[in-house]
Design goal:
globular; Rossmann fold; 7-stranded mixed β-sheet
Length: 197
Amino acid sequence: MQELWDSRYKSEQFIYGIEPNVFLKEYLQKTSPGKILLPGDGEGRNAVYAAQQSWEVTAFDYSISGKEKALNLAQMNSVKIKYLHCDVDSFKPNEKYDLISIIYFHLPKETRINFHSKLSCYLNENGTILLECFAKSQIKNNSGGPKSLDLLYSLEEIKKDFSGFKIELLEETETVLNEGHLHQGSANVVRLIARKN
């Protein structure tokens, strides 16, 4: 799987574009900056935008070519980001975050449950999780995302994963994606905003 993403990200083109995810962008525009963690941030579009909004950014991905493009994008935009090459199992933070943003980061069920269960420990008091991922109903669309139901998320799964949090928003909704050539068109997504108790 790492080879697949390395191959995708090696193209000069940013396959998900260089503009941030809209859901994340709108949240950051109304939130005071702090420390943010972006797991699976690929080519770095969200990390770079957060840094432009004065957030102290840590991102990680298991794609080496994704990391290289992210650091180049940061340099092009005159911002600094910390970008680690690792996966969810080997990620070991030495600091805590005010916001963890999970944007189209799809994991197999057991890996997802295990990773999500650790996130409270990565957050400061009153820290927030923001998530936008494809819903299981996305399987019928051609606008992006995994083609396996096991890698798509349901409201029930996400609600259970974050049952220890104060959930401020949890919804499945339809949105129109315009994120590079791989995320284009009408899409069904799950969105979550949850605060650490």
